[in-house]
Amino acid sequence: MSDTTIDTNVLGDKIVRVLKTIFDPEIPVDIYELGLIYDVFVNEDLDVKILMTLTTPNCPVAETLPLEVEEKVKSINEVKDAEVEITFDPPWTQDLMSEEAKLELGML
User: Fold this and answer.
1) pTM of the predicted protein model
2) Residue 23 gets which letter from DSSP?
3) How many alpha carbons lie under 13 Å from residue 91 in its C-beta half-sphere?
């Protein structure tokens, strides 16, 4: 393994750490713990694709949140490019929230 090879698992962890700095404006919990991130793909070219949802299709940040996610993920040195795909299939429910998020919101 050469020095230029990047461990995609390590990069995945970095991406998750960045995602945990992005908060839903209406809920004081980060988008990762809220369960809005469905999947993160990293290919060999270090292009990142994030499959995410929003709490509702009419979410007030539907335009800006995906851009914020892209910009912050692109700011990671190893990432060449980042793209966010929004899906509502399956629709978001509170069941997707982590226990940490439910605790934070007094749901446990």
Assistant:
1) 0.89
2) B
3) 5
